[in-house]
Amino acid sequence: MNGFRKDFLWGGAVAACQIEGAYDADGRGLSTSDIHAYDVNMNRKKVKERGGTLEKIKKAVNDREGYYPKRFGIDFYHTYKEDLKLLKELGFKAFRTSISWSRIFPEGDEEMPNEKGLEFYDRLIDEIIKNGMEPVITMYHYDIPLALVTKYGGFASRKVVDFYVKYAKVLLERYKGRVKYWIACNQINYVPVVKFGSLGIYDDQTSPDKMEELVYQAVHNQFVGCALVKKAAMEIDPDAKIGTMISDEIYYPASCKPVDVVFTLKKNRMQYFFTDVQFRGEYPGYALRYFEENGIDLKMQSGDEEILRAYTMDYLAISYYYTKILDAEKNTMVPFDGLQNPYLESTPWEWRADPLGCYYCISEYWDRYQKPIMIAENGFGALDKVEEDGSIHDGYRISFLRRHIEQIKEAVKDGADVFAYLSWAPIDMVSSSSNEMSKRYGYIYVDQDDFGNGTKKRMKKDSFYWYQKVIRTNGDDLSE
Length: 480
Ligand code: BGP
What we know:
By secondary structure, the protein is an alpha/beta fold. Helices cover 39% and strands 11% of the residues. Helix 14 links the parallel strand 9 and strand 10 (418-424). Helix 3 runs parallel beside helix 5 (115-130) and helix 7 (158-175) runs parallel beside helix 9. It is globular. The two termini are 24 Å apart. 6-O-phosphono-beta-D-galactopyranose binds next to loops.
């Protein structure tokens, strides 16, 4: 294959908790994303997830002074029609967004779903389709209903798995025939870092020495949840495809010292662990050994192993942003503990772009599983400047995207079945990690600052016209 397949899904990806706003509209409940305050003194090079202790969480809920950007997003809840029109003009073939769990089950454990929430996604999904795009829907993107955290302790509880599967079944029934591509959980391997957003585990839920065990227990529960979602999809809508999604965190050895190379292999394997379980249907030996040697005793319920084996995922969604390197002496097995690569350029957030790494990552995953691959996120967060005449010259973003798409094409030429490229994010919105508005990814600029001030006017950047050409030529013309 010399280029992208004819039905290649070009598009972009967003998440409900960063874009929608309207956090209390139409019966929506609070979610984990609503308690992340913007911190003007934050160090961009050391952005950490803010979960906190149970007390801190409760305080944030009642705080009337701090600014919580994800509660407001860019008001997509009300502007989706105009925004989708712009994406249609770009030529989008697909649009990935997520459903806000707490719009459907405000507290997570209600008997019946919130009809008003379901109706919003009826309208949104219909509008996506009306604009000629394939909807790609993430069921759960860092916004578990907050009550499931405070009452049950998030995915560490098996009850929450039941609530999650019930929620997913409601979505599958309701949007059957309209949504083909589902992603069960955003970046399932990223959980040790985003343990609050992704697993709903708070800082003092257990003692520090038991935290790793609790996290992996919750991961196990999430695996079972995803497998049960696949089972439900097979029964409810056999045409639906259930994907698992990882954030690429495959690192390079810092040197060719065999000890660095083997350490890197072992650490990378704990990343493949997630997809090994979800595609091969069983826990690999290296992971079982890691758990045993680190005092991690996972509680499996009877039937779990059969469920994992019987219901594996249909495709792999990857988000790809940067790479890091590993030194056996300086780094530990703690996930994502790595060093910056001196051969790569830094951004203010220390996300070092590595287009060749994109080829490397796709090739590794394709060679390992031969499962269809969707690039579910890839993009360049930057501080954009609006010129006096309203133009925005984001050549750096065009260059980033061009170099990555070229490498994806290289992997395609090798035979990798990449069927979609959904860049993050077509329109500026609140950053997931830093809660800033000024970390911008879009082809479309949104006039809004870190405190939510501004006209919210949408403006096309130079990259808008470039990506439009890329889509029009099915990736043949990438010239800047
Ligand atoms: C991914 C998340 C997204 C997203 C992106 C960029 O890990 O799935 O939600 O926002 O990273 O991250 P950030 O917004 O922190 O720059």
